[in-house]
Specification:
Elements (H helix, E strand, L loop, with lengths): L3 E5 L4 H10 L5 E4 L9 H7 L3 E3 L6 H7 L5 E4 L8 H6 L1 E6 L14 H7 L4 E8 L9 E8 L5 H25 L4
Parallel strand pairs: 1-2, 1-4, 2-3, 4-5
Antiparallel strand pairs: 5-6, 6-7
Helix pairs in contact: 1-6, 5-6
Length: about 180
């Protein structure tokens, strides 16, 4: 079984949901926020001993201290640009909350809000290899959800649910060499 390291900047709820479906928590969870009061309580209960904090803008050296070279490293709302050297030397994967094959213009911040503002019929997710260029690595998995006519909260909810499905499929294959 491979080592799994998960990084997040927000609540960690996606990591909790994916972990429950996998039946496994990450071996190490990295957060770059000092205020842990906003972190998902269930995640903290299940793996507080696996939680590592780093500065808001980690340096290459700080990344090297917390990451393991042959680990599967996943980003779940990691709101930081990962340095080029780290992208090139570690197995880092990101899930962007937009179907980039259909809508390549949705790279970057707040794609669900842009789906809503532009009245696009589909939302979804793109799971890709992390590169130094924002949301531009090799696409590994993608899904779409019909959001036509939905309000913004529903778009967020549908996208979040579909994201967990992609992560579970990907991590089952990467960590256990099986597909759910």
């Amino acid at each position: 079984m491979k080592t799994w390291i998960a990084l997040f900047s927000q609540t960690g709820s996606e990591i909790y949901n994916v972990s429950k479906r996998l039946g496994r928590y990450p071996d190490r969870i990295i957060v770059n926020k000092i205020d842990l009061e906003t972190v998902n309580e269930k995640l903290l209960e299940g793996c507080y001993d696996r939680l590592w904090t780093v500065p808001s803008q980690p340096t290459v050296e700080e990344y090297q201290t917390i990451l393991v070279e042959d680990a599967i490293i996943t980003m779940h709302g990691w709101l930081r640009i990962v340095p080029h050297y780290i992208c090139n030397n570690y197995n880092i994967f990101n899930l962007h909350p937009a179907p980039l094959t259909r809508y390549p213009h949705l790279k970057g911040k707040d794609p669900q809000k842009r789906v809503f503002a532009q009245s696009l019929p589909y939302g979804g997710n793109t799971l890709h290899k992390c590169t130094a260029e924002l949301d531009s690595g090799e696409i590994l998995l993608e899904n779409e959800v019909l959001v036509e006519g939905d309000d913004l909260d529903t778009i967020f909810s549908k996208t979040h649910t579909a994201a967990a499905e992609l992560w579970v499929e990907f991590l089952n294959e990467q960590l256990y060499n099986t597909i759910e």
